[in-house]
Amino acid sequence: MKILGIESSCDETAASVVEDGRNVLSNVISTQIEKHIIYGGVVPEIASRLHSENICYVVQKALLDADCSLEDIDAIAVTYAPGLIGALLVGVNYAKGLALGSGKPLIAVHHLRAHIAANYITHKELEPHFVCLLVSGGNTLLCKVNDYTEFEVIGKTCDDAAGEAMDKAARTLGLPYPGGVNLDKISKDGDKNKYSFPRPHVDDNPMDFSFSGLKTSVINLLHNSEQKGVSLDAADVGASFINAVTDYLVDNTVSAMKIAELDKLVLAGGVSANSVLRAKIKETANKNKWQLFLPDLSLCGDNGAMVASQGYYEYMAGHIADMSLNGKASENINDNYTKNIQL
Ligand code: KG4
């Protein structure tokens, strides 16, 4: 079964054809980084307009690369939430138009479910149950994946996401957007013990995350030193900050594995490309004798293949959207759009 996956939740216009949820036939990503770089971050209005300009070409190229036409596609999957609303609406409306015109089923895919599904493509043998640590630019989540479309949230961020904290730290250090990846690069030779950052704790649910205090502490460190005319070594600041963020992520993951009573761990989301996080989680998994699954680096960021993969499992579960499908800026991973299609 061939699914066309469409992604436009942030700054990547992407489309892909995936067979039976696991076999990628094409994966086209048009990134907007060049256009947002001068603003130091994603400008939502510009992102929406660029999606509008590029989506036709990206989808056509995905079909062409997969050596198929729309007739060969069995269903059209699209990210409907969460994300930038104007950006999401471009993909949602384009997918609705395609489904209506072709008479193919429309599948609404939750963006975080799609990030998890990137692992089904990387690891053909991977099946639920497992615990997933999902770290992206907009979300940080620890959940138990009971089935392809059944998720139990163990912990989530109360404020900023880990990626947001990395991006702000990078921006304050004067690094270009996208911050997280550049922070990772410049921190490789830094001293991770040079600066100490707080290890946050959320009283109401110790499994929840809070990154806003950590973010403020790195910003304060840099602003205070600037006011005093003292220059800090960016590599040391970056390494110390990444060390604090990743320690926090790994500590909560260890607790989540105990709560879930599972020994299979999956990492997902853009920040799962971080070299320190990957190394620490591998070491922790080895120590605890967990089975560990990391997404291929090419599938950590936003892409259409992960949408098509999750779309396959939503389709198998009978989750078909109708023509009233709308984009949603925020949506719990447990919610899903499951109305029947009426063409
Ligand atoms: O999953 P993603 O592509 O978009 C969302 O769905 O949010 O994640 C983007 C986030 C950004 O915050 C970016 O800075 C971060 O992932 N990121 C990284 C690395 N690569 C991407 N953060 C730390 N180290 C990296 N190597």
Fold and architecture overview:
The chain has 343 residues and is α/β, with parallel strands linked by helices. The protein is 42% helix and 19% strand. It has ten helices and ten strands. It has helices at 33-36, 44-65, 85-102, 111-122, 162-172, 179-186, 212-227, 234-260, 275-288, 304-316, and strands at 2-7, 12-19, 23-31, 75-81, 106-110, 130-135, 140-147, 150-156, 264-268, 291-293. The strands form two sheets. It has a five-stranded mixed β-sheet with strand order 3-2-1-4-5, sandwiched between helices. Strands 8-7-6-9-10 form a five-stranded mixed β-sheet, sandwiched between helices. Helix 2 packs parallel to helix 3 (85-102), helix 4 (111-122) packs across helix 10 and helix 5 packs across helix 6 (179-186). It is globular. The two termini are 21 Å apart.
Spell out the key features of this protein:
343 residues; alpha/beta; 10 helices; binds 5'-O-[(R)-(carboxyoxy)(hydroxy)phosphoryl]adenosine
Short summary:
The protein has 10 helices and 10 strands.
- CA gyration radius, whole angstroms: 20 Å
- H-E order: EEEHHEHEHEEEHHHHEHEH
Bound molecules: 5'-O-[(R)-(carboxyoxy)(hydroxy)phosphoryl]adenosine
| Average predicted local confidence, pLDDT | 95
Total strand segments: 10
> Helicity, in percent?
40-55%
Structural class: alpha/beta
How would a textbook summarize the main sheet?
Answer: 5 strands, mixed
Shape label = globular
The unreliable regions are none
Tally of alpha and pi helices: 10
Proportion of β residues? 15-25%
How far apart, in Å, are the first and last alpha carbons?
A: 21 Å
Can you list the strand order of the major beta sheet? 3-2-1-4-5
